[in-house]
Amino acid sequence: MKVNILKDYEEMSLATSQLIIEVMKENPDGLYCFAGGDTPVKTLQLLVEAHQKKIIDLTKAYYIELDEWVGLKQDNTGSCLSYLNRNLFAPAAVPQSHIHHFDSLSSHLDEECQKANEYIEKHGSLTLVLLGIGENGHLGFNEPGVDFDNKAHVISLSSTTQSVGQKYFQEEMVLKEGITLGIRQLMESEVMVVIANGVKKQNAVRKILQGEVTHMCPVTIINEHKNSYLFIDELAGGQNENFN
Ligand code: PGA
Predict the structure, then answer these.
(1) DSSP secondary structure of 101-165
(2) pTM exceeds 0.90 for this model
């Protein structure tokens, strides 16, 4: 794992986007998985800017949704799909045929998982995953205690995720379950990029940098990935003795 500590959110986003741009230049038609959430917003904006300047072509790449709240309509502005549409797919005019997403309203969620697994298998593997970190150390909706061998699956959300997740919605929501790609698939990605900013991520970042991989903090698995990058700002890194 290569650790990059940047001054602030802006610099973290810039450094992250530069890495992704290099990978996209090498693999323009690869399969990419970009997390939703507040953390990647600026990085995605910078990718769209690079697309507009013709440095990369976001319409050539393929995309798979990382996770989604179960039972949510896709047009709800708090859904992960709506987030990606807003921040990446619509501004870059990515064709619908290049986007695979979960139907989290389906009454056959097991089939939704199977379809996601098959989409990745069809592409060989993921080219790059860009992941935020939950305050509880989750990756996607791989919550503490998750089986690292899982592929796509449905999972009960922890109380932390249920309450922190309210920030994405205008009114209070019942957020009991999520559907998510599994750690195994994220680990098989050729490049794994994890980003975190702000004091709320200090605990999870400290656990990553301590190096011990534990199911109770799923993001610690990044230590075992052969080509992984951690981009954090000074606030997220602030309580670690390795931090200077
Ligand atoms: P955030 O979410 O980027 O909104 O902090 C991260 C996550 O829960 O994975």
Answers:
(1) ---TT-S-HHHHHHHHHHHHHHTSS-SEEEE---TT--BTTB-TT--TT--SEEEEPPHHHHHHG
(2) yes
